[in-house]
Design brief:
2 helices; about 80 residues
């Protein structure tokens, strides 16, 4: 199950916009190992806890952010 980030007392993620038809923006919190993704089809930001930093870097550096998400993130982190 993917958790959805909602505004609370915690600071909102600072999103990095990526050039992708599937993913609008991403952010990563190294302290909690939480990846935040906003997809192009939705306004809300999804949270993926327990994501290693290397996976985040791979997503940022991928030629296809959507393909990387499907191969290495989707269904693996909840």
């Amino acid at each position: 199950m993917v958790r959805v980030w909602h505004r609370t007392n915690a600071a909102p993620p600072i999103m990095i916009y990526v050039n992708s038809s599937a993913i609008r923006a991403v952010d990563y919190d190294a302290q909690s190992e939480t990846l935040y993704i906003q997809f192009t089809s939705q306004r809300r930001v999804f949270t993926f806890p327990g994501v290693p930093y290397a996976v985040y870097v791979g997503l940022i550096e991928a030629r296809s952010h959507g393909a990387y998400y499907n191969a290495f993130i989707r269904g693996r982190y909840a």
